[in-house]
Amino acid sequence: MTANPVHAPDTSSTSSSGILDLPYDILFELFTLLAATDIVHLLSTSRALRALASDEFIWKHLSARYGLIDITHFGGRSFYSVYAGLLHTYGSLLGLWASDFPYAGEILQFSLDMGSDHRSGGIIGELWKFPALEPEEVGPLEIADLPTYRRIVRIGFGHPISLETQSEPFDGRARLFCCSRWNSGSEHWHMARLNVMSETNQSIFLHTRLGQFPHPEFPDTVEHPWYDAQRPFPRLSQTPQDTVDQTECVIRTLHPRVPTVYTAPGVRTKPRAISITCSDDCFRQQWPFLGFQNDLPFHSRYYPVRADIQPGVEPWSEHWNPLTLSGLWLGAYGLHGTECLHVEWDGAWLRSWKVTGDENVPRGICSWTVQMSDTLPITHAVHDMCVEAFGPLARCRVFHGTGAMSARGFMPHQRDVASVIIGVVGADDMRVLFADDGEVSTCIRYKGRRVP
Known about the structure:
By secondary structure, the protein is of the alpha+beta class. Helices cover 14% and strands 31% of the residues.
């Protein structure tokens, strides 16, 4: 028996002819399921489909994926122009990014700015800032603060604080402007540069009278719970990270008066990151306070932060479980002020990782760990202390755990473990009781930026 031959399909007609036969509403529904790059490739397959590139519904839908549904204050541009010139390249910035700055770290948040009658729309980048505390301001109950925001960069088509577009480049692409001086009321602005930095094995070290000590890697691994490995990066060419070894230069000073932070190649590879620079080096002026000498030659690298926001559940509810605590929190750390935490539940342990930190316990370190298989048995010895810290225990969930402690510097010989009691006192409120001295710090759930 002879098999029938299989004939190749007729390719004399365009490959998109079948798509062209679809009704427009079906075709548009198909576009809503595709990524932007796939839509562009599809539209380029034939003249008939290429004509759809001018259809605003397509670009309005793609812009809406980034939260942009109103372009009133974008200088009269179409959705196509705003998407192609701004969102296609920079839309993936939207969200939170964590800095590898030594010890403290930092949070950089990118948001859409819809503009106003006096300000053109675009994307703004703002640093989280928390108030500095004086010793007399730290009481028995340490209260976490919400962040304030300091604008440092704007991505748009025209002047950062007006609707003027005469300076817009001919190619119609958005540009970056440094706005860090604008915070003080000055209208001085100048061009900035955002780089997508390559992977690197550059690490940070601390040089002291006792020797050299590695600073905690950040991120320690791409599987770290706060690190958003699924976040795409801006569509820009990648910039190689320089390889620098400052060891020989730094150790010439055998007994430094002030510990020195420096960089050298390490063993752990850090993933891609973004970095921002400007001609006036304004971003270095925005760095957090560091009580050590900082000899790092690089600008900070920023890594994408997973910021899933989920509703909390009251601890007395039958629907409560440890998974409801997962996500970003803001915790009070005495004189260091408020720091950003990522709480992780792995099915047995609840861990709080520092996304930002301080000179005692830096960013990237697990702040406290709790085994939640069993609640803490409340004995008479700790009952009164827990009631004072958490309130009525019948409406709380109380667990025992351990917390990281260290003297300033976080060198191996300084580190210690403290006994802590974690009280879940509300849907969005936890408290950490240090059993040895009775100090209590609050943790509040991060619910996203509040819109005035």
